[in-house]
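1st attempt posting a full record on here, be nice pls
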Amino acid sequence: MLIHLDFETYSELDVREVGPWAYSVHPSTTIICGSFASAASDPHIFNVIPPYPLIEAIQKGDVTIAAYNTFFEYCIWRNVGVKKFKYPPIPIEKFTCTAALAASYGLPSSLHAVAEVLGTEQKLAEGKDLIKQLCKPNVEGVRNRDPELIQQLKAYCAQDVIVEREIHRLLKPLNDTMAETFTNVMRMNAYGVPFNTRQARVCKAIGERHAETIAPQLVELTDGRVTKPTQAKRIVEELQTHGVNAPNLQAGTVDELLKTSLPDTARKILALRKAGGKTTVSKYSKILDVVDPNTQRAYGLQRFHAAHTGRLGGQHIQPHNFYRPTIGNKLPLAIQIINESKRPYQQLVDLFGTDQIGEVLASCVRSTIKAPEGEAFINSDFSGVESVAVAWASEDPLTLAVHADPDKDIYISTATNVYNKPYASITDDERFIGKVAELSLGYGGGVSAFMLMAKNYGVNIPLDLAEYVVRTWRTSRPLVVDLWYTLEHALVRCIKQKTRQIVSDKVAFEWDEYLDLIHMQLPSNRSVKYWNPRIERQTITYMSLNSTTHKWSKHHTWGGKLLENYCQAICFDLMAQALNNAFKHSLKPILTVHDELLIEVADRDMSLKTFDEKIMLNKPEWAATFPLSCKTKKIKYYGK
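the predicted structure (as tokens):
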């Protein structure tokens, strides 16, 4: 029996700031009311304790719980209901999530927005005010227990169940593999990621002290108009007074500006911004907010189907956005100083210099993810998997042969085509050109994309060389170029004719008249969805969630972008297989980051060779011809 459930709760904490787990284990958190309904029944509202018939059905194992963002309901049931009010435990595999189902359809993340897109019943408008009044302390720190308002909150809770149930009814369930993956993501989120909170506290303190040394210099240089290195808008305005127009203050922009001729004051301001703008105090603060102090673990960090293509994302602490270390082989020494020294700030200044402290702290964020005593991490990363996916999708035998040969390097192979030289004579600089070409051109990128990626690596490529490389790469990959146009033309036909269009045995487009969308069908028996697809001014448009504004808005696409969607979806399917393999072998995955899997193991568990064979390279049947490879290592802390 499927039961749709929603809780309304009170706490001194803000769940948006600390995540569902830390919120649910806080002593102040309690249940105000709940509501549940079966497929056909009206919602039942309860105060704190669910009625006995539901309790009895749960005890018999007859109930699966559906909720919107169900990890919240799981945490409340487990950490509040079971521990404070003697609810019967519910196994985590008995939870399913309508938000995850909506995400698999490429729909927005909020219940209100999904209901708006699908045209179902809506949430009650007064809900936001009720939550503000009843679910957290008022300005005086006192809980509001107004009975009339609580009755209104109960009605709001019941309406949320009605809306969630209607959305669940409209959408087809996840296929078996994705349902298994969702349950395993729930298991990962409930198991948690171990953190070194002492290191996080020390790094936060160092960052705050470092900012204090920079702030007075900025105040003096700007006559008090800028007081902190993080005040980006003020710094941009200050630079304008010195004749410097900065489009933004991202790290790459600042580095580029510092390479140019600048007024002395502007240069000093930018140098201070670079030194202090990356102290990552907020990242360390977030770690300390989200980690459960009782277990030293952070829970609920993975978001299922975060991307349009299916890839998992991060949330709360956002481990997917952790900075990559940039201090090379000095990283272990920096970590040692932070964890062991009585004067860590001064020692880091002595070792790296004041202007590099921000860079050091940013480089140490990943290493706060640390294996508990006596355990380790297995860290495995698929090798060049998107490049392989492009060759596999286009059925390019020569490129696939390179990827399948462990003694061959695809970047060198690409460079041999660009420079018309033997494989063995390619230099490091020439391999770099091959690497940039391989990474930037597969999805239809042109000269601008090639030059921009090279610039992101710190290399400026002359226009004539870029034009030559793009032309040569496309000439050497005719099957890839053909696939861009084949995909685009097939999607156009599907929109116009509203009939299934088969591109190959690996991909097809299917019109869904019921929901006004097109499925790009994948060999893994799932699909990427394109809502309300249209041809407008000879351009393909569709509706999707804007990753920047988080609003439902119109997007444009073409063949290269369609291939990118396809390849990234395939790469996620391979990672989902690896994740599911790990659980089948009773391992404990704690995190995936793009094409990387992190597993917590006893220090002596499983050889890396066995791990690769049974977990990472144990492919599904549809990917039998996909030349998959990986790099695997055992580590004590996360630090790629």
